[in-house]
Design goal:
The chain is α+β, with helices and mostly antiparallel strands. The protein has one domain. The protein has 5 helices and 8 strands; from the N terminus they run αββββααβββαβα. Strands 1, 2, 3, 4, 5, 6, 7 and 8 form an 8-stranded antiparallel β-sheet that branches. Strand 2 and strand 3 form a beta hairpin. The radius of gyration is 19 Å and the shape is globular. It starts with 18 loop residues before the first helix and ends in a 13-residue tail after the last helix.
Length: about 210
């Protein structure tokens, strides 16, 4: 990921002394085994922690709420997670990497009413390319993470499907020992880069905003 070689844009979130270690790990991509470790033993609440069996919700096209329990990633800054700080936490659902690819394959095949061998081959090629792009963390709205818990083929954090959940539910999940993994130090810095790229990357030069009159 050559575009990550210049750390100047992340100078405020990555301490200078940690840049060499992060640079070494970035060179291992598409090996992301360095992202995650076991839940931190001393610190109970960390940004990026992965929790199992956690409720999520989104509004569908009919403006109806759909709720389901997923493994989730907690996106709030660590400083915002102590008791009394916030009434809600922000959670992103996590899905199995291989199951996601199976879903995409089925969806793309279904989009064609009649498929010959050539068309099927094209669909398979497109799914393989999708897998490659995701596996290298090149899709801004999806974060690929290595195996942990039940996700032995890796997992995907769906950053475009985040939701707010009461901190009471979050605290109950912590008491129930639902934490599955925490980010390593360099893994955490990669998470910050990913979130920055997803939410706050520069707009295309073709986007022309109005100036104040």
């Amino acid at each position: 990921m050559a575009e990550l070689d210049d750390f100047s844009r992340y100078a405020r979130i990555i301490p200078k002394e940690h840049i060499p270690a992060l640079s070494r790990d970035l060179k291992k991509i598409p090996d992301f085994s360095w992202l995650l470790g076991q839940p931190h033993q001393e610190i109970e609440r960390l940004q990026g922690d992965l929790l199992r069996d956690f409720p999520t919700v989104y509004l569908d096209e009919k403006v109806e709420a759909r709720s389901r329990n997923f493994t989730v990633m907690i996106l709030n800054n660590t400083c915002d997670l102590p008791d009394g700080r916030l009434d809600f936490v922000t959670a992103a659902p996590v899905v199995d990497f291989n199951k996601y690819l199976e879903f995409e394959r089925a969806r793309r095949l279904k989009a064609h009413t009649q498929l010959g061998e050539t068309e099927k081959a094209r669909v398979e090629d497109s799914v393989r390319e999708l897998a490659r792009v995701i596996r290298q963390n090149k899709k801004t709205e999806i974060l690929f993470v290595p195996k942990f818990g039940e996700f032995q083929g890796g997992a995907l954090v769906l950053l475009h499907l985040v939701c707010s959940v009461s901190t009471k539910i979050y605290h109950e999940a912590l008491r129930a020992k639902q934490r599955l993994a925490s980010f390593t130090q360099t893994g955490f810095y990669f998470l910050l880069i990913k979130l920055t790229t997803h939410i706050a990357r520069a707009e295309s030069t073709q986007v022309m905003r109005k100036e104040v009159a």
